[in-house]
């Protein structure tokens, strides 16, 4: 579904991605784990089109993605829940969801919204409140729900567990795992390697702008190097 | 029945416009009222641009100037009816805003403020210097709208100031109604979303550059119509209408009253239109007082007067 080959990107003259190769197949949950500063967020920014690509290719459902501007990528089926959640804090919860469905004006929008409320009942309680007043966990739920309103076939998630209490982290990971049932393919970027690998089918390890390891989640969790460096076991 | 914020705003506005005349000690107050409404209309456009979309223009008086001079020149040279001249001015302003905004609004940041400042100054200079057509700095006469005579023949005899009070009040109501409708439309939501985060707005599929351009064009049309109404009301116009002080005034009114809310911004227009009348007691200290008021509001009520006061009242009520 999504194939990245030799992807390079730079901030000014400093190259931060030195040729990334990865692929996500339809129906999979794939995670990219790595320490802070490894380039995970830059990778996602390239995929969503807000970061210029300096080399290599991104192919999504058979189409070259690099020439497609950021705001057109959702209509191709690629949604993103950006880093730091990036919900619209001054708008209400409901307005945030409606913006997720900005591209659509058919009857399915209302149905999708009911589905989102079914998935996250707390959002329904707070639908008319400013999204900025939600707790961190609720904001993350809103960010995911908003991305789903765009009817994506593939969802890019950037650090959904960031800054959340452990009990909420588990809740969010359960939600991500549940996306499989909705036929949404997921590329999950996480610092929380253990939590991410537990719900993912496959994983990539990223270090200073390169993919250094890849494999099934089981294999990565069992790998002594990973256990030592990221899992702290 | 619970009224929505939109209905409340329109109700309060309509009530203020309709009931204020009962407290007017002299016909001079109709004149002040219609000036407030004309400024309020321009400032409503600023609410769309600055309050909704978070973009700042320092040249909107340029569009007011185009609207005003369209009403002066088109009837005299093209034989257009003044009402059509108003529409023509709005169209020219909209097209100009489109042409200027299109390359600039692709960029994020203060570029629009600088470019619009330049545009406003350019328009003001053209109006002042091309005296063969504009009459130069001395100004130019504006044709009569003719509507008052029509009303009179229908048996509704209004004095000039009464007529303009009612007419500009109605124009303001319509302008506010349109702006409030925009607020809750998909385009309005898109504008408020990109105000919060352009990146997030793009990831939900909003063409940020296009949305910002739409806000700029719409607000330019508001400024243009406001300029036209001012010209038609005064029957005379000078290039000052396009001066950059007038641009700053518009932004100041919106920010003072609360750029995020239509009612707040109109409230700001009211205060800043009336303040000079009150401050004449202080004569040469007028500008000083104005600056002081602005600074205090920005320090203590960053969201603007009306939203801050409303929050204070609501906070007490709970």
UniProtKB/TrEMBL annotation, chain A:
In alphabetical order, the GO MF annotations are:
ATP binding
Q: Which UniProt keywords apply?
A: Amino-acid transport, ATP-binding, Nucleotide-binding, Transport
Membrane-spanning regions, if any? none
InterPro entries per the UniProt record, alphabetical? AAA+_ATPase (IPR003593), ABC_transporter-like_ATP-bd (IPR003439), ABC_transporter-like_CS (IPR017871), BCAA_Transport_ATP-bd_LivF (IPR052156), P-loop_NTPase (IPR027417)
Reply yes or no: does the keyword rRNA processing apply.
no
Q: Could you confirm whether the keyword Ribosomal protein appears in this record?
A: no
Q: Would you say which domain of life the source belongs to?
A: Bacteria
Boundaries of every ABC transporter domain copy = 2-233
Which PANTHER family does the record associate with it? HIGH-AFFINITY BRANCHED-CHAIN AMINO ACID TRANSPORT ATP-BINDING PROTEIN LIVF
Would you identify the family this protein belongs to, as annotated? Belongs to the ABC transporter superfamily.
Q: What is this protein called?
A: Branched-chain amino acid transport system ATP-binding protein
Automatic annotation (TrEMBL), chain B:
Print the keywords alphabetically.
Cell membrane, Membrane, Transmembrane, Transmembrane helix
User: Which Pfam families does the UniProt entry name for this protein?
Assistant: BPD_transp_2
The UniProt entry lists the main location of this chain as membrane
> Which superkingdom?
Bacteria
What membrane topology term does the record carry?
Answer: Multi-pass membrane protein
Keyword Coiled coil included in the entry's annotation = no
Compartment(s) where it occurs, according to its Swiss-Prot or TrEMBL record: Cell membrane
Locate the transmembrane regions by residue number.
7-24, 30-49, 83-101, 110-128, 163-182, 213-232, 252-275, 287-305
Which protein is depicted? Branched-chain amino acid transport system permease protein
Name the PANTHER family for this protein.
Answer: HIGH-AFFINITY BRANCHED-CHAIN AMINO ACID TRANSPORT PROTEIN BRAE, HIGH-AFFINITY BRANCHED-CHAIN AMINO ACID TRANSPORT SYSTEM PERMEASE
């Amino acid at each position: 579904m999504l194939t990245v080959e030799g992807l390079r990107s730079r901030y000014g003259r400093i190259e931060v991605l030195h040729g990334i190769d990865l692929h996500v197949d339809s129906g999979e949950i794939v995670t990219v784990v790595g320490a802070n500063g490894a380039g995970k967020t830059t990778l996602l920014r390239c995929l969503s089109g807000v970061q210029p690509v300096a080399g290599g290719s991104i192919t999504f459902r058979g189409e070259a993605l690099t020439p497609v501007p950021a705001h057109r990528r959702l209509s191709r089926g690629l949604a993103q829940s950006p880093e730091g959640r990036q919900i619209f804090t001054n708008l209400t919860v409901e307005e945030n969801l409606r913006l997720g469905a900005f591209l659509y004006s058919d009857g399915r929008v209302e149905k999708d919204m009911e589905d989102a409320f079914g998935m996250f009942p707390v959002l329904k309680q707070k639908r008319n409140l400013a999204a900025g007043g939600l707790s961190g966990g609720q904001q993350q739920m809103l960010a995911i729900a908003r991305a789903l309103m765009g009817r994506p076939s593939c969802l890019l998630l950037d650090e959904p567990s960031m800054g959340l209490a452990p009990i909420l982290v588990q809740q969010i990971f359960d939600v991500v795992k549940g996306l499989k049932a909705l036929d949404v393919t997921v590329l999950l970027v996480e610092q929380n390697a253990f939590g991410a690998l537990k719900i993912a089918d496959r994983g990539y390890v990223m270090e200073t702008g390169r993919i250094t390891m890849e494999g099934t989640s089981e294999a990565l969790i069992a790998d002594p190097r990973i256990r030592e460096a990221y899992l702290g076991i | 029945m619970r009224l929505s914020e939109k209905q409340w705003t329109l109700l309060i506005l309509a009530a203020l416009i309709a009931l204020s005349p009962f407290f007017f000690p002299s016909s001079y107050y109709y004149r002040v009222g219609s000036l407030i409404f004309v400024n309020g209309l321009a400032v409503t456009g600023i609410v769309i641009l600055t309050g909704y979309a978070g973009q700042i223009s320092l040249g909107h008086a340029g569009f007011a100037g185009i609207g005003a001079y369209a009403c002066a020149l088109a009837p005299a040279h093209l034989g257009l009816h003044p009402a059509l001249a108003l529409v023509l001015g709005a169209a020219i302003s909209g097209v100009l805003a489109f042409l200027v905004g299109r390359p600039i609004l692709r960029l994020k940041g203060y570029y629009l403020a600088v470019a619009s400042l330049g545009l406003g100054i350019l328009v003001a200079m053209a109006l002042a210097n091309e005296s063969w057509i504009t009459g130069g700095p001395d100004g130019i006469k504006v044709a009569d709208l003719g509507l008052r005579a029509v009303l009179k023949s229908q048996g509704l005899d209004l004095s000039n100031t009464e007529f303009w009070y009612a007419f500009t009040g109605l124009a303001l109501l319509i302008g506010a109604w349109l702006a409030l409708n925009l607020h809750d439309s998909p385009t309005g939501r898109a504008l408020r979303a990109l105000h919060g985060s352009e990146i997030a707005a793009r990831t939900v599929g909003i063409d940020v550059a296009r949305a910002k351009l739409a806000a700029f064009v719409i607000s330019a049309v508001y400024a243009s119509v406001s300029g036209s109404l001012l010209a038609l009301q005064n029957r005379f116009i000078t290039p000052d209408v396009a001066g950059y002080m007038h641009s700053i005034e518009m932004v100041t009114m919106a920010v003072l009253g609360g750029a995020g809310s239509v009612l707040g911004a109109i409230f700001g227009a009211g205060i800043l239109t009336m303040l000079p009348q009150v401050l004449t007691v202080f004569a040469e200290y007028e500008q000083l007082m104005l600056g002081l008021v602005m600074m205090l509001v920005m320090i203590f009520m960053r969201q603007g007067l009306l939203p801050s006061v409303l929050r204070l009242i609501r906070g007490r009520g709970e």
